[in-house]
Hints:
The chain is an alpha/beta fold. Helices cover about 25% and strands about 40% of the residues.
Amino acid sequence: MALKSTIFKANLQIADIDHGYYADHALTLARHPSETDERMMVRLVALAIQAHELQDTCRGDGTLAFGAGLSDPDDPDASLTDFTGRKRLWIEVGQPEDKPLAKACSKADAVVVYAFGSAADVWWRGIENKLTRLDRLQVWRLPTEVAPALAELAERSMQLQATVQEGALTLSSEKGSVHIEPVRWK
Length: 186
């Protein structure tokens, strides 16, 4: 019998001062049996950082949601879809291959990767030249120590506050807070 995904619920309050976006999001995250708490929380952080696009790109008339993630390699980790069904934003976390990223760039207006973990630098050196022609792609690096700290905040039912200011995000809960300063690689 196959293992089932573990369901996590998050009430996420976002205060994105940089973009003037303030909203509460009730989120459901399905953590695949092979996914770590670190990766799941990085997906949540990526969504929080990009949430302002719901207002900036879709004028509030769209859906910001998690994809199937590890369950379906052709589905984004998170995405923004407008009311016509058009993918406006495709979000991936980790160290994806170049061909799926090229495919994502053909399906969405913008693709954003949030690389994390100790292998991210090695991954980037190996793939950077293959991604130069992808104009719709942005690649961000989260500091190595961030993912383990985020995993400490993971609970089946979470109350989280995300504050975005001067390009950095602080994610807080009653268990503590994590300050994240992503670095843009592309």
